[in-house]
Amino acid sequence: MTDLRPLQVPAAARSFGELRAGNLGVRIAATRSEVDAALALRYRVFFEEMGAIPDQAARQTRRDQDAYDAVAEHLLVIDHQIGSGPEAVVGTYRLIQQAGADSVGGFYSASEYDIGPIISFPGQILELGRSCVDARYRGRAVMQLLWRGITAYVFHNQIALLFGCASLPGTDPDALAIELTYLYGHHLAPPALCPRARRERYIDMRRLDPALIDPRRASQMLPPLIKGYLRAGAFVGDGAVVDPEFNTTDVAILVKTDMITDKYYRHYERQSRDLPD
């Protein structure tokens, strides 16, 4: 049954309305049914397609869900040719601010990384995670729209730092030696800001002689999501983490929002004048 009850949006969060690109739109989920559609999409992508291992609850509900979903905002891509609600959700991103994380004991990333340097960063911080797109919609248009949504959210909520865990496929770090070595050698965060994988999960990213790596080829081998972060000026943390449940090898990602181009800020500042408070 469709649940049209509005969500209790955190007081610190401000919506930016909906951004459109043709038949596609991006906005924050407004009802419980829309969030449920995002959880169902995540299950299809992560468990049915990418080989993640569901626990009993996930198998029964066919939803990818944890305690963080209740305190997050869920960015959605909607295909208006299909509809304007849950039935039309084709992409999603989970956004968690500090107040939400505090209410459940911390950020998701803290299970894999020491994020002390991020927590102490002056200004508002935002954890990004659980990004996925329906297989029929994967391409530049949807990813660009998701990034437009994130950038608008950053602007309207005065976010100073984005962070989260991004995944490479598979759980064999040696099979990802080129990508991990490249990320460490070319995009490592400054020491004062650098999260480090928790000691018990730490995997050295320096798996090859950097001199043997072609940076251009290595960057092309990265998953599209990580490429997108790097285009936005992202850094990576020290150490990778194998996540056997999701069949991935994770790296910590962080982006200072002053790295996002002034062009986007001017665009959303103009747009915000036309939006209600």
General description of the model:
- The chain is of the alpha+beta class.
- It has a single domain, classed as Aminopeptidase (3-Layer(aba) Sandwich).
- The strands form 2 sheets. An 8-stranded mixed sheet has the order 1-2-3-4-6-7-10-9, sandwiched between helices. Strands 5-8 form a two-stranded antiparallel sheet.
- The longest helix is centred in the first third of the chain and has 18 residues.
- The chain starts with 18 loop residues before the first strand and ends in a 5-residue tail after the last helix.
Put the structure in a nutshell.
This protein has 277 residues and is α+β, with helices and mostly antiparallel strands. The protein has 9 helices and 10 strands.
